[in-house]
Amino acid sequence: MRIDFAFGAPDRLRSACQTACKQHQAGLRLVVYCSDGARLAAFDRMLWALDDISFVPHVLANDPLAPDTPVLLTAADPADALPADQAAQAWLLNLDDDCPPGYEVYARLLEFVSGDAIDRQAARQRWRVYQAAGHDLHSHDIGPVSANRP
């Protein structure tokens, strides 16, 4: 399984919203997981207000419209958000501080990490768990480009 970590996100939720928009535009299913209901609700609100011309169709995974909606939000086990055959082709975006349960059923896992020390420490722990499980880990620096960088 491929797992991508995007480090240096100026705003973890905004970066995740932008990725959700890109996934939707590419026609890919995405499940967004976070056990923290307040953080998941903030992400939901941010998806509605991402910009004036984009719309990212999204609902909670237990909503009756979930089977027909490309982006699902869940605070429950993400392995239960989609049937197994659909999850095997979908991507999972983790907004939680811990590794999501059941993540192995997804084609790919995305992790966004801000510059916040607590967020970075939690991400390092998740990295170690994924690494110990033998997953294909990729690190991306998405932080602001400084004048010192080529």
Architecture overview:
- Strands 3-4-2-5-6-1-7 form a seven-stranded parallel beta sheet, with helices on both faces.
- The chain contains four helices and seven strands; from the N terminus they run E-H-E-H-E-E-H-E-E-H-E.
- The protein has one domain: Rossmann fold.
- It is globular.
- Residues 146-150 have low confidence and may be disordered.
- It has helices at residues 12-25, 37-48, 84-87, 117-132; strands at residues 2-9, 30-33, 58-60, 71-74, 91-94, 108-114, 136-141.
- The protein is α/β, with parallel strands linked by helices and 150 residues long.
Structural class: alpha/beta
The CATH class: Alpha Beta
* DSSP strand content: 15-25%
What's the arrangement of strands in the largest beta sheet?
Answer: 3-4-2-5-6-1-7
Helix run count? 4
The third-level CATH topology is Rossmann fold
Number of strands: 7
Task: Count up the domains.
Answer: 1
Largest sheet: 7 strands, parallel
Tell me the CATH superfamily: DNA polymerase III subunit chi
Mean pLDDT: 92
CATH architectural grouping? 3-Layer(aba) Sandwich
Element order: H for helix, E for strand: EHEHEEHEEHE
Radius of gyration, whole Å: 15 Å
Q: Share of helix among residues?
A: 25-40%
Could you name the ranges where pLDDT drops below 50 across 5 or more consecutive residues? 146-150
**How far apart lie the N and C ends?**
32 Å
Shape descriptor: globular
